[in-house]
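Posting for a labmate who doesn't have an account.
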Amino acid sequence: MALENQFLSAFKELLDTETELFKDSERTELEGLITSFRNDTKQLADEITRWCASHSDINNALIALMARKLSDERPAGAAFPTSETKAEYEKNLTEELLNVLRQSSPPENPEPNTPADD
């Protein structure tokens, strides 16, 4: 797996497991980045790296997560991906990032369910 794909996969996991690290305004910023670079995973990974550098709590958590993932990795015996499967994987990865980002947002407070006066 390409380095940028590993990074984006780890970032997706962070979004999914450490939701409390991300404020609503940060989620909005990230959604803009992901949408802007959804067809270029290398550029997306670079932009998220820059973004993380200015958000130290998130950056530190991501570094720790990536370090754990690297120590847990074992060599895979999988075949080399074709350009078509690589493109499909990258497209799916950016879509998954957007989905996880949106799902990790805290639920909005619903309107209280009060009966109408008759």
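Reply:
Got it, the structure tokens are right above this. The chain is about 65% helix and 0% strand.
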